[in-house]
Amino acid sequence: MDTYILAIESSCDETSMAVVKNGSEVIALSITTQMDTHAKYGGVVPEIASRMHTEAITLVLEDCLEKAQMKIEDMSAIAVTYAPGLTGSLMVGVEAAKILSLMYHKPLIAVNHLIGHIYANNLENKMEFPLLALIVSGGHTELLVMEDDYQFKRLGETMDDAIGEAYDKVARVIGLPYPGGPNIEKLAQMGEHTYDFPHPVLDDTYHFSYSGLKSAVINLVHNETQRGNRIRKEDLARSFQDVAIDELVRKVEKALKETGIKRLVIAGGVSANQYLKREMKELCEKYEAELLIPRMLYCTDNAAMIGAAAYPKYLKHEFSSYTLNVSSSADIV
Ligand code: KG4
Ligand code: ZN
Fold first, then answer.
1. What is the best residue among 270, 296, 297 to mutate for testing ligand 1's pocket, by most ligand atoms within 8 Å of CB?
2. Which sequence spans correspond to the domains of the chain?
3. What is the pTM of this model?
4. What distances in angstroms separate CA 141 from CA 126, 154, 159, 247, 252, one per listed residue?
5. Nearest atom, ligand 1, residue 140 CA
6. CATH architecture under which domain 4-120+298-315 falls
7. Which of 7, 21, 191, 278 is surrounded by the fewest CB atoms within 10 Å?
8. Does position 29 have pLDDT exceeding 90, yes or no?
9. Which atom in ligand 1 lies closest to the alpha carbon of residue 14?
10. Cα–Cα distance measured from residue 94 to residue 193, given in angstroms and rounded to the nearest whole number
11. Does 328 have pLDDT greater than 80?
C-alpha cells in the first residue's frame, strides 16, 4: 500500500507543507517565505518569524491539500521538523503537527532539518549507500559518511561559522540584502579573483573554518573605506567565493581519497550555488564518483524534504509521542 506523508517545515523563515508519496514522489508542495520582511532588518528576526509562521500555517495547509487534491484523512502520517532552528518558529510547526496527528489519529514523525536536507536527494534519485554527505547551509557545514538509512558518521564540521553564515555576513558588509548567498554569487560571476584572502589551515583534518576568511573580508572593506579607496565588489565577491568553495572542495577530495566512497550527496541552501556545483562535478569526475544535488527548489528550505526523511522512520514505526518538544540544536550524530 502506498504511504502518503503530510510534512511540515517551519524552522527558519519559510512556512512549508508537502504531501510526499512513498518518500520520493512530491504530490504537492506549498511554500511561503518571509524573506522580504527579514531583508529589511538584514537577517531573520526570530520574534517576527514565529508570528508570521502562525499567520501562514493554516493557509499553507489549505493550499497544500488543495494542490494535492487530498484530505488529511488520506494521510498515513504527519511529519514535522523539530530541530534544529529558531525555537519559536519550530514550535509553530510542531504544535500544528501534534494537533493534526491527535485530531485525525495519525502517527507523528519528528524529523531533523539537516537530515531533511540530505533526504531531499531521494525526491530526485534514490540514495544508495555508502555515501559522503556534505551539508552546507546557513547554520551548518558538515561532512558525513552514511552507511545506510539514518546511519551517520561525522567526519568533520565547522569550528566556527557556517559557510552560509559567512556568505550572509560578507554580503552585509558590502551592502547586499539578506540572504547574502545568491547575491554574492551573482556579483562573483562578474568579478575577477584579485584579493588574496587566507585559506583556513586545518589541512590534516576534515574540519572547516570560516571566521578567519569572513574577518579578512570585513577588515579589508573597513581599511579600504577608511583610506577612501574604492572596492570593486564584484572582485571581492569572487575572491571570497573562490576561497570559501575551495575549502569545501579540499575536504571532500580528502574524503573521496581516504574513504574510497564513490558517491557524494550535497545538501542545504548553499548547494544552490552554481560555482559549487561546477567544482564538485569536476572533482567527482576525477574520482569517478557519482554526484547528487537536488534541484534548486529542494535545496533551500521546503517541506518535501521532510516528507522524504520521514519515510524510513515511518517504515520502522519510529513515531513520536505528544510530548515531542522542539530543540534549537539537535545533532545528527
Ligand atoms: O538551508 P537553508 O535554506 O537554511 C538553513 O537551514 O540555514 O540555507 C540558507 C543559506 C543562507 O546562508 C544563504 O545565504 C545560503 O544558504 N545560500 C547560498 C545560495 N543560496 C542560498 N549561498 C551561496 N550561494 C547561493 N546561491
Ligand atoms: Zn535549511
1. 270
2. 4-120+298-315, 129-293
3. 0.93
4. 23, 11, 9, 11, 12
5. 7
6. 2-Layer Sandwich (3.30)
7. 278
8. yes
9. 3
10. 45
11. no
Q: Is 138 in the pocket of ligand 1 (CB under 6 A)?
A: yes
218 Cα–ligand 1 center, Å: 20
Of residues 204 and 102, which shows the higher confidence score? 102
Residue range 129-293 forms a domain whose CATH class is alpha beta
Instruction: Give residue 44's pLDDT.
Output: 85
